[in-house]
Amino acid sequence: MTSVPVLIDHLERRLGRMTNSWRGDSRPGLPTFNVGGFADGVIADTTSYATLGLSKLPLHHPSHDRHFFVELIAAAHDPAGAFRDSFLGALEFMWTRSLNSREVVLRGDVVSLPSEVMVASRFSFLYAALPVYYDDAFKSVVVESGDEVAVVWLVPITSSEAKFVAERGWKEFEQELVKIDPDLLDMSRQAIA
C-alpha cells in the first residue's frame, strides 16, 4: 500500500476527499497543469479545487527577494458543480501565468481574468488571500522535498472590488471584508464595494 503524498493529505484534511482530478497538456521541463476537486470537507456544501504540482517550480514576487513554493485553491458553495468549468479555467489561467512569468501571487494581489474564464459571469478578478476559512495550520505545509508550500486562496471578486483594492489597498479591503463579513464562497453574493 502506498502512502498518500503530504500535500494531498494536507488538502483532504480541510477540503474533503479528492473526488476528481484534471490534467492539462505537458510542457517540456515544466510541471503539467493538474487540479484536484474536493468535496465533503470542513465547510458544508462546498466544492473546492486545488492545483497539484505548481509548487514544484520556485516562483518569485516583485516585492520580495526570495522565492516561493505555492499551490492555489478556489472554492464555492457548489455541490452540483455548476461553477466547475469556471474554476478550472481560472486555475489553468493562473497556472499558465505563473509558469510564463515565474511570478507568484501572494496575499493582497489582484489578477484580472480573461473574459472566457470569468467566474459566475460577474467575478472578473481573483484576489489572493490567506485561506482564513480554515484552521491556521492550513496556510502552509512542508512536503516530502523539504520545501514549505504556501496555500493561496483565490477569491473571485468583482471589478468594483478590484478597484477598491487598487485605490485603497489590500489591508483596507480585508478590513472591509471583516466588517461586512460576506460569504466569499457564495457565487451570488453582493459586492462589498
Characterization of the model:
The protein is of the alpha+beta class. It has one domain. The chain has four helices and nine strands, in the order αβββββαββββαα. Helix 3 crosses helix 4. The longest helix is centred in the middle third of the chain and has 18 residues, at 84-101. The radius of gyration is 16 Å and the shape is globular. It starts with 5 loop residues before the first helix and ends in a 13-residue tail after the last helix.
Briefly characterize the structure.
The chain has 193 residues and is α+β, with helices and mostly antiparallel strands. The protein has four helices and nine strands.
Which secondary-structure class do the elements indicate?
A: alpha+beta
Total separate domains: 1
Cα distance, first to last residue? 51 Å
- Overall outline: globular
Poorly predicted runs are none
Total E-strand runs: 9
Per DSSP, the total helix count is 4
Q: How are helices and strands ordered from N to C? A: HEEEEEHEEEEHH
From the alpha-carbon coordinates, what is the Rg to the nearest angstrom? 16 Å
Helix proportion? 25-40%
Q: What number is the mean pLDDT?
A: 94
- Strand composition percent: 25-35%
The main β sheet shows up as:
9 strands, mixed
Descriptive labels:
25% helix, single chain, nine-stranded mixed beta sheet, globular, 4 helices, alpha+beta
Question: How is the topology of this model organized?
Answer:
Elements: H1 6-15, E1 16-23, E2 34-40, E3 47-51, E4 59-60, E5 67-76, H2 84-101, E6 110-112, E7 125-129, E8 140-142, E9 148-157, H3 159-168, H4 170-180
Parallel strand pairs: 5-9
Antiparallel strand pairs: 1-2, 2-3, 3-5, 4-5, 6-7, 7-9, 8-9
